Amino acid sequence: MTGISELFNYGAILIYAALITGVAVLLLSLNPWLGPKKPNAVKAQPFECGKDPISLPTGRLPIHFYVVAMLFVVFDVELVFLFPWAVQARTLGWFGLLEMGFFLLIVVAGFAYAWKQGAIEFK
After folding, report:
1. CATH top-level class for 2-116?
2. pLDDT number for residue 38
3. pLDDT, tens digit, for every residue of 47-98?
4. DSSP code per residue over the chain
5. Tell me: the pLDDT tens digits for 36-48?
6. Which value, to the nearest 10 degrees, does the dihedral of the CA atoms of residues 65, 71, 72, 74 take?
7. Which candidate, 40, 116, 120, places its Cα nearest to that of 74?
């Protein structure tokens, strides 16, 4: 009987996912027909933090901007793993502490490598 109750739990999850998908598709498909369509010159202008743009955008951003952005995402996602460990630190014991120390050693080594390569320096 345990298998049948688990099947009902998964069925509820699948029904919920189908309903969410249906609502998302419905809202995205109705938007072009029901949304207001009043284009004008003000709405077509570039938007820059609520201020009038000084000049039109020109050129490209330096590649260094993208490198810093990727490094931020990588290290930010890796450091998100610290919170669950901190919550369960007592139950994990010494083994958890050693594993987290090894994880942080890898993160710090990656950070040191990026720093040595000059990816973090602004000129």
Report:
1. mainly alpha
2. 81
3. 666 666 666 666 676 777 788 888 888 888 888 888 888 899 899 999 999 9
4. -HHHHHHHHHHHHHHHHHHHHHHHHHHHHHHHHHS-----HHHHS--BTTB--SS---S---HHHHHHHHHHHHHHHHHTTHHHHHHTHHHHHHHHHHHHHHHHHHHHHHHHHHHHTTSS---
5. 778 888 777 766 6
6. 140
7. 120
The token pair that represents 61 in the structure block: 């951003």
**Distance (Å, rounded) from C-alpha 63 to C-alpha 56?**
20
CA 56/CA 14 separation, integer angstroms: 48
